[in-house]
């Protein structure tokens, strides 16, 4: 009888970013404000905030510094 082990947290695949989430993260990590990002992407600042909240939830990130560090790690 073989036991099935659940994958460890390090083996679990990272959540995928949607293209607009990736683009939003790239702008914010480059030092742009929500307003600058929104204008460049043709969105409202509320939508930019929503994208960033989704990214934070997906990766369990609590602040912009961590978002920036993640963006650098992803090569954005």
From TrEMBL:
Q: Where is the composition biased (Low complexity)?
A: 1-18
Q: Which PROSITE patterns does the UniProt record give?
A: HTH_LUXR_2 (PS50043)
* Residue segments, region Disordered: 1-22
- Tell me the ranges covered by the HTH luxR-type domain, including all copies: 10-75
Record keywords: Disulfide bond included?
Answer: no
Which keywords fit this entry according to its UniProt record? DNA-binding, Transcription, Transcription regulation
What is this protein called in UniProt? Response regulator transcription factor
Q: Which organism is it from?
A: Streptomyces cinerochromogenes
Question: Lineage in the entry?
Answer: Bacteria, Bacillati, Actinomycetota, Actinomycetes, Kitasatosporales
């Amino acid at each position: 009888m073989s036991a099935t082990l659940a994958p460890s947290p390090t083996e679990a695949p990272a959540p995928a970013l949607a293209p607009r989430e990736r683009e939003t993260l790239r702008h914010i990590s480059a030092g742009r404000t929500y307003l600058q990002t929104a204008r460049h992407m043709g969105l409202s600042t509320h939508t930019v905030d929503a994208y960033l909240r989704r990214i934070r939830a997906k990766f369990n990130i609590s602040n912009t510094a961590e978002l920036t560090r993640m963006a650098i790690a992803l090569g954005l």
